Fold:
Amino acid sequence: MSPVHAYAMAGLPVSVRMPDDRVLAAHLARLLPEINPNPERGESVLVERQGDSVFLVTGEGLTRSFTCHDPVDTACGVTAGLIGAYAIAVQDKLCFHAAALICKGKAYLIPATYKSGKSTFCAAWMAAGHSIVTDDAAIFDVRTKHVSSFGIPLRLRNSLLRDGPQPLREFVATNLLLQGPRLSYVRSPDQASCVPGTSYPLGGWVFLDRKVGALPKLSRLRPTESLGQIIWQN
Structure:
Protein backbone atom coordinates (compact mmCIF):
# COMPACT_ATOMS: atom_id res chain seq x y z
CA MET A 1 0.00 0.00 0.00
CA SER A 2 1.21 3.52 -0.77
CA PRO A 3 2.53 5.57 2.17
CA VAL A 4 0.58 8.44 3.76
CA HIS A 5 2.12 11.91 4.04
CA ALA A 6 0.59 14.49 6.36
CA TYR A 7 0.87 18.28 6.14
CA ALA A 8 -0.12 21.28 8.21
CA MET A 9 -2.82 23.17 6.29
CA ALA A 10 -3.50 26.47 8.10
CA GLY A 11 -3.32 24.71 11.47
CA LEU A 12 -5.32 21.65 10.44
CA PRO A 13 -3.57 18.30 9.78
CA VAL A 14 -4.42 16.95 6.33
CA SER A 15 -3.00 13.90 4.60
CA VAL A 16 -2.44 12.38 1.17
CA ARG A 17 -1.78 8.77 0.16
CA MET A 18 0.60 8.69 -2.77
CA PRO A 19 3.23 6.48 -4.43
CA ASP A 20 6.70 6.37 -2.95
CA ASP A 21 8.04 9.03 -5.31
CA ARG A 22 10.90 11.08 -3.90
CA VAL A 23 10.57 13.90 -6.44
CA LEU A 24 6.85 14.41 -5.77
CA ALA A 25 7.38 14.20 -1.99
CA ALA A 26 10.20 16.77 -2.20
CA HIS A 27 8.02 19.16 -4.22
CA LEU A 28 5.18 18.94 -1.69
CA ALA A 29 7.62 19.47 1.19
CA ARG A 30 8.64 22.76 -0.45
CA LEU A 31 5.01 23.91 -0.63
CA LEU A 32 3.67 22.75 2.76
CA PRO A 33 5.18 21.88 6.16
CA GLU A 34 5.17 18.09 6.56
CA ILE A 35 4.12 16.58 9.90
CA ASN A 36 3.76 13.07 11.31
CA PRO A 37 0.65 11.34 9.96
CA ASN A 38 -2.16 10.42 12.34
CA PRO A 39 -3.07 6.75 11.78
CA GLU A 40 -6.63 7.43 12.96
CA ARG A 41 -7.32 10.02 10.27
CA GLY A 42 -8.05 8.98 6.70
CA GLU A 43 -6.29 10.61 3.78
CA SER A 44 -7.98 13.56 2.07
CA VAL A 45 -6.28 13.06 -1.31
CA LEU A 46 -5.27 9.91 -3.17
CA VAL A 47 -2.55 9.92 -5.83
CA GLU A 48 -2.19 6.90 -8.12
CA ARG A 49 0.62 6.38 -10.59
CA GLN A 50 -0.61 5.99 -14.18
CA GLY A 51 2.76 5.90 -15.92
CA ASP A 52 6.19 7.52 -15.90
CA SER A 53 5.59 10.90 -14.17
CA VAL A 54 1.84 10.58 -14.86
CA PHE A 55 -0.47 10.60 -11.82
CA LEU A 56 -4.21 10.44 -11.19
CA VAL A 57 -5.32 12.74 -8.35
CA THR A 58 -8.64 12.15 -6.57
CA GLY A 59 -10.13 13.01 -3.19
CA GLU A 60 -13.05 14.40 -1.22
CA GLY A 61 -11.72 17.94 -1.59
CA LEU A 62 -11.79 17.83 -5.40
CA THR A 63 -14.87 18.35 -7.55
CA ARG A 64 -13.43 15.87 -10.07
CA SER A 65 -10.45 13.61 -10.54
CA PHE A 66 -7.75 14.68 -12.99
CA THR A 67 -4.56 13.41 -14.55
CA CYS A 68 -1.26 15.25 -14.08
CA HIS A 69 1.72 14.75 -16.37
CA ASP A 70 4.62 15.93 -14.21
CA PRO A 71 5.45 16.05 -10.46
CA VAL A 72 5.03 19.84 -10.13
CA ASP A 73 1.57 19.71 -11.70
CA THR A 74 0.73 16.78 -9.42
CA ALA A 75 1.87 18.70 -6.34
CA CYS A 76 -0.41 21.55 -7.45
CA GLY A 77 -3.34 19.13 -7.74
CA VAL A 78 -2.63 17.69 -4.30
CA THR A 79 -2.61 21.11 -2.64
CA ALA A 80 -5.94 21.94 -4.35
CA GLY A 81 -7.43 18.75 -2.94
CA LEU A 82 -6.09 19.46 0.54
CA ILE A 83 -7.55 22.98 0.47
CA GLY A 84 -10.90 21.50 -0.54
CA ALA A 85 -10.69 19.00 2.32
CA TYR A 86 -9.96 21.87 4.73
CA ALA A 87 -13.01 23.75 3.47
CA ILE A 88 -15.17 20.69 4.17
CA ALA A 89 -13.75 20.12 7.66
CA VAL A 90 -13.80 23.71 8.96
CA GLN A 91 -17.22 25.19 9.67
CA ASP A 92 -16.41 28.55 11.29
CA LYS A 93 -14.47 30.00 8.34
CA LEU A 94 -15.11 30.60 4.65
CA CYS A 95 -12.60 29.42 2.06
CA PHE A 96 -12.60 31.60 -1.04
CA HIS A 97 -11.07 30.92 -4.43
CA ALA A 98 -9.46 34.34 -4.26
CA ALA A 99 -6.20 36.22 -4.10
CA ALA A 100 -5.60 38.75 -1.34
CA LEU A 101 -3.15 41.62 -1.36
CA ILE A 102 -2.06 43.81 1.55
CA CYS A 103 -2.50 47.56 1.32
CA LYS A 104 -2.00 49.85 4.34
CA GLY A 105 -2.29 46.94 6.76
CA LYS A 106 -5.55 45.58 5.34
CA ALA A 107 -6.32 42.64 3.07
CA TYR A 108 -8.21 43.14 -0.18
CA LEU A 109 -9.80 39.97 -1.52
CA ILE A 110 -9.76 39.33 -5.27
CA PRO A 111 -12.23 36.54 -6.11
CA ALA A 112 -11.63 35.36 -9.64
CA THR A 113 -12.04 32.35 -11.85
CA TYR A 114 -9.26 30.27 -13.43
CA LYS A 115 -6.97 32.22 -15.80
CA SER A 116 -8.44 35.57 -14.79
CA GLY A 117 -5.05 37.11 -13.96
CA LYS A 118 -5.14 37.20 -10.15
CA SER A 119 -1.74 35.48 -9.74
CA THR A 120 -0.17 37.77 -12.33
CA PHE A 121 -1.68 40.76 -10.53
CA CYS A 122 -0.20 39.50 -7.22
CA ALA A 123 3.22 38.89 -8.80
CA ALA A 124 3.24 42.44 -10.18
CA TRP A 125 2.17 43.75 -6.75
CA MET A 126 5.06 41.88 -5.08
CA ALA A 127 7.52 42.94 -7.77
CA ALA A 128 6.62 46.54 -6.95
CA GLY A 129 7.67 45.92 -3.33
CA HIS A 130 4.29 45.23 -1.73
CA SER A 131 3.00 42.18 0.16
CA ILE A 132 0.25 39.67 -0.48
CA VAL A 133 -1.67 37.25 1.71
CA THR A 134 -2.27 34.67 -1.02
CA ASP A 135 -2.67 34.47 -4.78
CA ASP A 136 -5.26 31.70 -5.07
CA ALA A 137 -7.08 30.49 -1.93
CA ALA A 138 -7.96 32.66 1.06
CA ILE A 139 -9.46 31.95 4.48
CA PHE A 140 -12.01 34.41 5.83
CA ASP A 141 -12.87 34.31 9.53
CA VAL A 142 -16.54 35.31 9.72
CA ARG A 143 -16.32 36.20 13.41
CA THR A 144 -13.26 38.49 13.29
CA LYS A 145 -13.61 39.63 9.63
CA HIS A 146 -9.93 38.78 9.08
CA VAL A 147 -8.25 37.20 6.05
CA SER A 148 -5.44 34.64 6.21
CA SER A 149 -3.54 32.24 3.96
CA PHE A 150 -2.94 28.51 3.55
CA GLY A 151 0.76 29.32 3.24
CA ILE A 152 1.22 28.03 -0.31
CA PRO A 153 3.71 30.08 -2.40
CA LEU A 154 2.68 32.15 -5.39
CA ARG A 155 1.89 29.94 -8.41
CA LEU A 156 2.28 31.17 -11.99
CA ARG A 157 1.94 29.70 -15.45
CA ASN A 158 5.25 29.64 -17.31
CA SER A 159 3.87 31.82 -20.09
CA LEU A 160 4.43 34.77 -17.75
CA LEU A 161 8.16 34.05 -17.78
CA ARG A 162 8.11 34.31 -21.56
CA ASP A 163 5.54 37.02 -22.23
CA GLY A 164 5.40 39.22 -19.14
CA PRO A 165 7.02 42.65 -18.78
CA GLN A 166 10.77 42.52 -18.14
CA PRO A 167 10.65 43.73 -14.47
CA LEU A 168 8.07 41.04 -13.71
CA ARG A 169 10.10 38.34 -15.48
CA GLU A 170 13.19 39.38 -13.52
CA PHE A 171 11.26 39.23 -10.23
CA VAL A 172 9.98 35.73 -11.00
CA ALA A 173 13.42 34.48 -12.10
CA THR A 174 15.07 35.85 -8.95
CA ASN A 175 12.54 34.27 -6.59
CA LEU A 176 11.84 31.00 -8.40
CA LEU A 177 11.17 28.16 -5.94
CA LEU A 178 9.92 25.31 -8.10
CA GLN A 179 9.46 24.99 -11.86
CA GLY A 180 7.70 22.40 -13.99
CA PRO A 181 6.82 22.26 -17.69
CA ARG A 182 3.56 24.20 -17.17
CA LEU A 183 3.65 25.83 -13.72
CA SER A 184 6.17 27.57 -11.48
CA TYR A 185 6.07 28.49 -7.80
CA VAL A 186 7.64 31.73 -6.61
CA ARG A 187 8.86 32.42 -3.08
CA SER A 188 8.07 35.72 -1.44
CA PRO A 189 11.00 38.07 -0.78
CA ASP A 190 8.84 39.58 1.95
CA GLN A 191 8.42 37.34 5.01
CA ALA A 192 4.95 38.83 5.63
CA SER A 193 3.54 37.27 2.47
CA CYS A 194 1.82 33.86 2.35
CA VAL A 195 2.43 33.08 6.04
CA PRO A 196 -0.25 30.79 7.51
CA GLY A 197 -1.76 32.02 10.76
CA THR A 198 -0.98 35.68 10.03
CA SER A 199 -4.28 37.46 9.48
CA TYR A 200 -5.26 40.91 8.28
CA PRO A 201 -8.53 42.84 8.65
CA LEU A 202 -10.63 42.87 5.51
CA GLY A 203 -10.27 46.14 3.65
CA GLY A 204 -12.57 45.37 0.74
CA TRP A 205 -13.04 43.44 -2.48
CA VAL A 206 -11.36 43.92 -5.85
CA PHE A 207 -12.90 42.40 -9.00
CA LEU A 208 -10.86 41.82 -12.14
CA ASP A 209 -12.29 42.53 -15.56
CA ARG A 210 -9.38 41.43 -17.70
CA LYS A 211 -8.87 43.15 -21.02
CA VAL A 212 -5.62 42.28 -22.74
CA GLY A 213 -3.70 45.35 -23.85
CA ALA A 214 -5.98 47.85 -22.09
CA LEU A 215 -4.78 50.28 -19.45
CA PRO A 216 -6.08 49.41 -15.96
CA LYS A 217 -8.72 51.60 -14.38
CA LEU A 218 -10.76 51.52 -11.19
CA SER A 219 -14.51 51.74 -10.88
CA ARG A 220 -16.95 51.00 -8.05
CA LEU A 221 -19.44 48.15 -8.15
CA ARG A 222 -22.83 48.18 -6.45
CA PRO A 223 -23.02 45.88 -3.36
CA THR A 224 -25.58 43.59 -5.01
CA GLU A 225 -23.41 43.23 -8.11
CA SER A 226 -20.34 42.60 -5.95
CA LEU A 227 -22.15 39.87 -3.99
CA GLY A 228 -23.22 38.25 -7.25
CA GLN A 229 -19.59 38.15 -8.41
CA ILE A 230 -18.46 36.62 -5.12
CA ILE A 231 -21.06 33.86 -5.27
CA TRP A 232 -20.52 33.14 -8.97
CA GLN A 233 -16.75 32.85 -8.64
CA ASN A 234 -16.93 30.62 -5.54
In short: Helices lie at 22-31, 71-89, 118-127, 159-163, 166-174, 223-232. Residues 3 and 17 are 6 Å apart (CA to CA). The chain has a mean pLDDT of 87.
